[in-house]
Amino acid sequence: MEKVVLKASLRENKGKEVCKKMRREGHIPAVVYKDGKDALSLQVENGELWHALHTEAGTNAIITLSVSDGEKPSQKTVILKDIQLDPISDKFVHVDFHEISLKEKLKVKVPIVAKGEAIGVKEEEGVLGQIMWDVEVECLPTAIPEHIDVNVEELKIGDSIYLKDIESPADVDVLGDPEQIVLSVHPPALEEEEPEVEAEEGELEPEVIKKGKAEEEGEEEEAAPEKAPEKAPEEGEKEG
Length: 240
Description:
The chain has helices at residues 16-24, 46-52, 119-122, 206-223; strands at 4-10, 27-34, 37-45, 63-68, 74-85, 92-99, 106-115, 127-130, 134-139, 148-151, 160-162, 173-174, 181-186. By secondary structure, the chain is α+β, with helices and mostly antiparallel strands. It has two domains: 4-99, CATH 2.40.240.10; 106-186, RNA Polymerase Alpha Subunit, Chain A, domain 2 (Beta Complex), CATH 2.170.120.20. A hairpin with a 2-residue loop joins strand 2 (27-34) and strand 3.
């Protein structure tokens, strides 16, 4: 595994405003934790931190912190514990490290990489589905794999690879439920056609019929003249 060295310096002043000023000057607040010991507050240079976390080992890189405190720098072997990013700019806000011993095992998550092209995809037009993208392993820091490869070439439609089927590197124990599905090949998705509904001849929507009838009745009422009242016979007028 690639050796990564990151320079750091002690940080005495704390608080939001102090940290904001620190970031403007290109430094990131950092804390180092170790079981049974007080946390150590540090600051690291933004660019150097970016490079330390972008090696082939990724966030599982074993980092040697070279801590300057005005005297001879002390060295601490650490691994990334947590990192905070600005949700808008995606820049570093704060980073936590965990001090480790190269002689003690630890638990970390490593990516799962599918290798090859499954028979079910190549010949049967199926779809490869990946359910697990990383897996937790336990090993010495120096034995942490960059990723775990899983060969899928023999998978046919309906076949699956379970966690118990994964072959891990020597001295690396895979943790988790052995019956958890990691990868599987599914049948191709079928497109459902919507049934066409044809209106029968002479069939009209009820609302249209109702509306038409109302309009016709209105037209008849409008066309019929009002009946004039009968004229009363004048006085003295007699029938003939």
